Amino acid sequence: MLNQLPLSRISGSTFPAIPDAHASTQLALQYQLESSQWWPAEVLIQHQLKQLHSLLQHAVSTVPYYQQLFKLHKLSIPNALTLEFLQQIPISNRSAVQSADNQLASIDLPADHGAVEFSTTSGSTGRPVKFARTALTQTLWLAFALRDHLWHARDFTGKLCAIRWFPAGVASPPAGAHHPTWGNIVAPIFASGQSASLNVVATLPQQIAWLMQEKPDYLVSFPSNLVALCHYATTQNISLPKLLEVRTIGETLTDQNRSIIQQGFNAKVVDIYSCEEAGYLALQCPESGHYHVQSENVILEIVDKNGQACPPGKAGQVLITTLHNYATPLIRYEVGDIATFGEPCTCGRGLPVIHKIHGRKRNRLILPSGENIFPYLGEHGEITRATGVKLHQFQCIQHTVQEVELKLVMDRDLTSEEQAKITILMQQHLGYPFQITYSFLSDIARSSTGKFEEFISHVSA
């Protein structure tokens, strides 16, 4: 529910507010989401299937990849769609989606879905995945981000700070970057306080100094970075008394790390489960702490190695079907995560419960001094540009405080001269003259949790 009045577009009329078109759309969506979250599971599924029917018809009519997939497996969309039919559709893994490339794009996108923008995943799970988004998918992304704020009753007049990944040179220490509002999720609808951002490549002393200067009410960062910050702050006897809540993103938040962050900062900890291709997948329940699947926007399945649905309590691969992205439909797409469903939540919401999310961890680089930092590995494509040889997969492994191994999947092995170029480049990025060794492979396997880790450290902090 709303905890403050929206902004009004009519001068002299603040209560009740008369919002502008954008805010009205977002508030109308919140009105629907406030209702749908309480529907029984079977009612939610009925509405999902109705939306899925529309998406499948569009995909089979306008997306070459799905035209070929349905033809190959002799599938035809029934008039009355069921979950059993969805489960007959073959799983599309990451390699299949990467290989499909432009074949996954709709050739006849509905005009009222709005402008299209193209993006790629970061590549932290292997090669990047290309995908498109529309104005409609962006509108829904904003709606679920706002739902998270409203679920947890955040005070928008407070100060929001984020320590996260940015391209080199953006939000750099010691100052970071400053913004007059909380950004496009909140500011077009509600009055908000200021926000500030810092690049996560900043050292721990730089991050702590920045936080002490900014004095945030709310803080957003990666779990691994927050744990390292807590340990450093404890050794320095530093606290952040204004901090009300820490929000974790981008990695799996373990129970141990949640406890470390909560105790270290003496603040509430709220996690988010998302992916770049689909946005918000699950939000943490404000009452129980479980993760609720955002079923109004995605169908999320958890399946075993044979593709069969896992019952609550059994871990399996996460598959997602995006319900509103008609530009690049993702149907039974394997995101590369392992998760476990839970029993229905005691809060009463009908949204499915994820009990545990496995994997997704960024390790930190350990320097010979004993300092540990978030490793900056450069931009995707730098190695290809530096050598002229196409890079397909990349992994960096720290074996000792002096030695780092680069595992590369490329069109061919690099010559000694080309390796020397990359050595200099990586030493600059990592901030220390590590001994760089090379391994050229045909494929780099995923971890046991189903994720490809771009950086792995075998050195204890």
Structural summary, described in words:
With 461 residues, the chain is an alpha/beta fold. The chain has two domains: 263 residues, ANL, N-terminal domain (Rossmann fold, 3-Layer(aba) Sandwich); 93 residues, GMP Synthetase, Chain A, domain 3 (2-Layer Sandwich), CATH 3.30.300. 28% of the residues lie in helices and 23% in strands. It contains eleven helices and 20 strands. A twelve-stranded mixed sheet has the order 4-5-3-6-7-8-9-10-14-13-12-11, with helices on both faces. The chain has a four-stranded mixed sheet with strand order 19-18-17-20, with helices on one face. A two-stranded antiparallel sheet has the order 1-2. It is globular.
Summary tags:
461 residues; alpha/beta; Rossmann fold; GMP Synthetase, Chain A, domain 3; 2 domains; twelve-stranded mixed beta sheet; four-stranded mixed beta sheet; 28% helix
Q: Which outline best applies?
A: globular
Q: Quickly count the domains.
A: 2
Mean pLDDT: 91
Q: Tell me the strand percentage band.
A: 15-25%
CATH class of the largest domain: Alpha Beta
CATH architecture of the largest domain: 3-Layer(aba) Sandwich
Mind telling me the CATH superfamily name of the largest domain?
Answer: ANL, N-terminal domain
For this entry, what is the oligomeric state of its chains? single chain
Number of helices: 11
Strand order of the largest sheet: 4-5-3-6-7-8-9-10-14-13-12-11
Structural class: alpha/beta
